[in-house]
Automatic annotation (TrEMBL), chains A, B:
It comes from Paenibacillus solisilvae. Residues 12-427 form the Non-reducing end beta-L-arabinofuranosidase-like GH127 catalytic domain. Pfam families: Beta-AFase-like_GH127_cat (PF07944), Glyco_hydro127C (PF20737), Glyco_hydro127M (PF20736). One of its GO terms (molecular function) is hydrolase activity. Residues 438-534 form the Non-reducing end beta-L-arabinofuranosidase-like GH127 middle domain. Keywords: Hydrolase. Residues 536-649 form the Non-reducing end beta-L-arabinofuranosidase-like GH127 C-terminal domain. This is Glycoside hydrolase family 127 protein.
Length: 653, 653
């Protein structure tokens, strides 16, 4: 085991937070029922999901054709997983009954031999495992395994877990190094991380070994996905006729995983794979796999990540492009990819409590991820742009993928249920512990019961983070205990201060990789007060990022800001800001449930003299002063269609 | 007739110019032979053209399959047209023999009933005229008609003209308002302008009427292209199976042409159509058609044109997107589209000598068009970007269409032969005349014999334009004649001065729509000296053009400049320039055959402190001074792969 700490189990943490509790409520009251309606094709004017219908047909309860994407089963899986997390901390018999019935349906759709997958059951019964490149069979299996684990942990009910163990056994009989088995892997990684979870909850090492097999096999020469395409007759699920040789870099199968040096290909596939690699490195003490994780992490976060925590800069293949290529307008930055980035960061954080992982996790969470959902919980972004010109989204086909307002549901609707499962499991991300330490990674009001070297430490966190940087932690101990309390000091923070029982403890504090560590013999009722000064920061990007040359963005704490047309008029590209500007942060209770807005003086290029309709003229550009107002990026696009930008021009002074 | 002036026929103009004569030479010595080799599939490592081979197969001289694009015939047509123009001013028996043989081959490929088109002759003999939307039959016919007219005018040889009249007669029997004929038009406009040329050279009004029919019919409801798709069984030449309803805005067939208000759809189709509309408006005195031309012109040049004279801002459909959407990196700006823009401008200029038409013509010619060819005459740009980051072109699929260096030949190789035919007919664009006036639209060393109200006026032009603004015009007259001499004063020019026989004539000069008009009783040997002060201008774009916000470009006379990595290092986005900079223009004989470069002081953002690999930090951007060097845009990409930008950041001072 390379793991230094363990996450505190979800059932030992409850969130009670002015920022996050409304999201939890929204997820339970709106997102989960809305998505259930979506899975049942009951959302008017939205694309039907067909997910439940497919299971009913596969179960023999209904007649009909398969509908939706080949990976439609995974939408139900993610929904069940979210429900599992919700039920971990809440009694909710009505919801549990619906979920139990859905699980019964899944069971009825399972085949005699353990196989589960409605597409091949309904539509192409003879063709199981013949197109792993395109058809997401193992991907869907992985998601249902995650659901099974979550539901078991949340409710104690084994039914879905047993279903998925049967399926996992069937998969283990089908894949592996032994003769007669398929020496291959899925086109879309996901089962690898799910099998680790299945192992962790069942203790069955077969699942861990199978996961390791999939990871180790990937990218070996000759390439499995290419060979499979050859033996299939060079066809594709996604196109008619003979197709070109698959570009397996898209699937991160171009090289053995340990030889991959840069994040490449489809971003969600990439981060799901990296997550599994970190899991396996931790479980098996696999140092070479851990080295690969670190290399890929470094490349991704220091060369290919948007300031919002978005990853995957091109919509062509929903993919990474290359180092420092971070266009703000043609961007992809898929919601699911940032969620996967959070998974990866969370795993790395357990291997080694290093603030850089939590910093990225927090960046993705407070910006790209939270921003993907509307304040009504019923509309979602799949693509999370950093610059929007609504007319261009409509009229320039290169920007059609960038939607200026959140959409109801998608034909490929991976993101909304992914968001739901993240938000319902957020409690798992706040703390972790080891035999002699408690780590606080995230700041949100919560109550946790944490195992530290045999003792159970109660930890109550009170804060108005991210709007306010004051955090109060209160310990509840049956008896005094000596351990390290490690509090993350975010990289953006300068001048953090800690008081213990009202007294400053700067001198007893040791900084270790982004954590302020205080080792004391803690007493019941000890109060730790952390102050993280939240200043408005004007941020610049590495000059290699050509898209942001001469520009800056605003950040306050973990929250990235944006300018919207609703506050600043059009044309936002005409706005510029002096780098000396003194911005003020102010709480605005009127703004979408309330949040800190940033206000200051800016400049706007005059458009006078341009009415004649000419396009070009000798320069006589003049700028006038305007009052600027920036809102949290996560809140953009909730006030109608308009321009938005995260990065704005700076004025040299 | 709405026409005010007539172009001076090509055979009455010869170019002898330090800037353009090398291009003429390059076209004759390299481009024409190289393209002939290309048409014959003799270029190593380049995509085969199949053009000649298709004609040989259609003529029964060879067995084989049709090769290349469905419109491959047009490449030979444009080549023949270029040769026709070349032969207009030059004795060149060797080339003429090759062209005559090619024309013989075209004749042999013509069918009994007059039909000409190798695709349907070889590949789908029963399917003529069943897919006008996709298959370019009339488009190819149009190009061969243009070739026939050029070759006839250049050599006096009627063979190709007769072939094409037979084909035009066949088309006239096939299309028209009469019962039993197809009431339709081509998916790619071209034949409309060609039929006007055929009418002008034959006097056969049938051809003019047919052109008018195609233009008037276009966009009427119910839509022909949609109906055709229905009756074809909803198939497409470009895709397998059943296809979606064609988006006829792409073909400018969404509305009757007189109701179209904005340039839209495929840019080349658009400008070829506008050219024909202007031709028909002029020929038939059609005021409503002229009004439509003006509306479309205004929209295009004042809202949808790059500073280089490029049009069509998206590669999706090689099309216009919408007003002020002029991205510099994802740009299309196809060479052929700018050539078509020149055609349209030239027609409008004959209807009404207004400097705005010649200004745009000149902008497109000296920048986008000339820049599309390498200095060796063997490599071409199809797409003409205003900003290039070579790595992005390679690794970001959204920029794959933007090539950082010119390519040998293209599978769809419309642009190189289009360029050849423009450069060989450039003499036609310099002058025009009416009964009492001679207009000089372009400044290039040349000798012309111009008809003015029955008299033949010899006009010799000497200049080093565009590097130098001094132009000397010498008149040769058999006897004194009173007429107006109108000299274009470009919109970018301030302080133009005219001397006649050494004396300043500012007071006798009347400005009329961008032309300095002097009416005198001219004598043999009169010398007119025009001085167009060429200053380096720092140009800004309309603030609605978001892509150029806070940026500027350099222009000197008609020549737009760019920064290249070869001169200014990488990262070009880090460069900024004060708007007060005093730039110096200097002739550099070493630069690709010689040209004026622009030099001055700029700033470059320091990259110090960024080596640690972080992506974002609180701003502390600092810029150091650097020596900047800009070269003419038309010369970019000739010194290896590197970054290039036309627009650079300005510093507020």
């Amino acid at each position: 085991m390379l793991q230094t700490t363990r996450p505190v189990p979800l059932k030992q943490v409850s969130i009670n937070d002015s920022y996050w509790s409304p999201y939890e409520k929204l997820v339970r009251q709106t997102v989960i029922p809305y998505q259930w309606d979506a899975l049942n094709d009951r959302i008017p004017d939205a694309e039907p999901s067909y997910a439940i219908r497919n299971f009913r047909i596969a179960a023999g309860l209904e007649k009909g054709e398969y509908g939706g994407m080949v990976f439609q089963d995974s939408d139900l899986a993610k929904w069940l997983e979210a429900v599992g997390y919700w039920l971990t901390g809440h009694d909710d018999p009505e919801l549990e009954q619906i979920a139990d019935a859905a699980i019964d349906l899944v069971g009825q759709a399972q085949q005699e031999d353990g196989y589960l997958g409605t597409f091949f059951t309904i539509k192409e019964p003879g063709k199981r495992w013949t197109n792993l490149h395109d058809c997401h069979e193992l991907y869907c299996a992985g998601h249902m395994m995650e659901a099974a684990v979550a539901y078991y942990k949340g409710t104690g009910k084994r039914k879905l877990l047993d279903i998925m163990c049967r399926f996992a056994d069937h998969i283990d009989d089908t894949f592996g190094p032994e003769p007669g088995k398929i020496q291959g892997y899925d086109g879309h990684q996901e089962i690898e991380l799910a099998l680790v979870k299945l192992y962790q909850v069942t203790g069955n090492e077969k699942y861990l070994k199978l996961s390791q097999f999939f990871i180790d096999e990937r990218g070996k020469a000759p390439n499995f996905l290419v060979q499979e395409w050859e033996s299939r007759g060079r066809t594709s699920h996604w196109a008619q006729g003979i197709t070109g040789k698959p570009n397996v870099e898209y699937n991160q199968a171009h090289l053995p995983v340990r030889e991959q040096k840069a994040a490449t290909g489809h971003a969600v596939r990439a981060v799901y794979m990296y997550t599994a690699m970190a899991d396996l490195a931790a479980q098996n003490g696999d140092q070479s796999l851990l080295d690969a994780c670190r290399t890929l992490w470094d490349n991704m976060v220091s060369r290919q990540m948007y300031i919002t925590g978005g990853i995957g800069s091109t919509h062509h293949g929903e993919a990474f492009s290359f180092d420092y290529d971070l266009p703000n307008d043609t961007v992809y930055a898929e919601t699911c990819a940032s969620i996967g980035l959070i998974f990866f960061a969370h795993r790395m954080l357990q291997i080694e409590p290093d603030g850089q992982y939590a910093d990225v996790l927090e960046r993705a969470l407070y910006n790209n991820v939270v921003g993907s959902m509307s304040s009504d919980g019923k509309h979602f972004f799949y693509v999370n742009p950093l610059e929007v010109w609504p007319q261009a989204s409509e009229k320039n086909p290169g920007l059609h993928h960038v939607k200026p307002i959140r959409q109801k549901w998608f034909a490929c609707s991976c993101c909304p249920p992914n968001l739901a499962r993240l938000l319902t499991s957020l409690g798992e991300y706040i703390y972790s512990s080891s035999d002699n330490a408690v780590y606080t990674h995230l700041y949100m009001g919560s109550q946790a019961q944490i195992d530290v070297g045999g003792a159970s430490v109660g930890l109550k966190q009170e804060t108005n983070y991210p709007w306010d940087g004051e955090v109060k932690l209160t310990l509840a101990l049956e008896e005094a205990k000596r351990f390290k309390l490690a509090l993350r000091i975010p990289a953006w923070c300068e001048g953090a201060a800690i008081r213990i029982n009202g007294e400053s403890k700067q001198e007893e504090l040791v900084m270790e990789k982004g954590y302020a560590v205080v080792e004391l013999n803690w007493q019941d009722g000890d109060v730790i007060q952390l102050t993280l000064p939240l200043e408005v920061q004007i941020i610049e990007a590495n000059p290699q990022v050509r898209a942001n040359a001469g520009k800056a963005a605003l950040q306050r704490g973990p929250v990235v800001y944006c300018l919207e047309e609703a506050d600043n008029g059009s044309v936002l590209a005409s706005v510029s800001v002096s780098t000396e500007t003194e911005f003020k942060a102010r709480f605005d209770g009127e703004l979408l449930g309330g949040g800190i807005v940033i206000e200051g003086e800016g400049y706007k290029d005059s458009d006078s003299g341009w009415q004649g309709g000419e396009l070009y003229r000798p320069i006589r550009r003049q700028a006038g002063r305007i009052a600027l107002r920036a809102i949290p990026y996560s809140m953009w696009g909730n006030r109608g269609k308009g321009e938005m930008t995260v990065w704005f021009r700076t004025r040299s002074s």
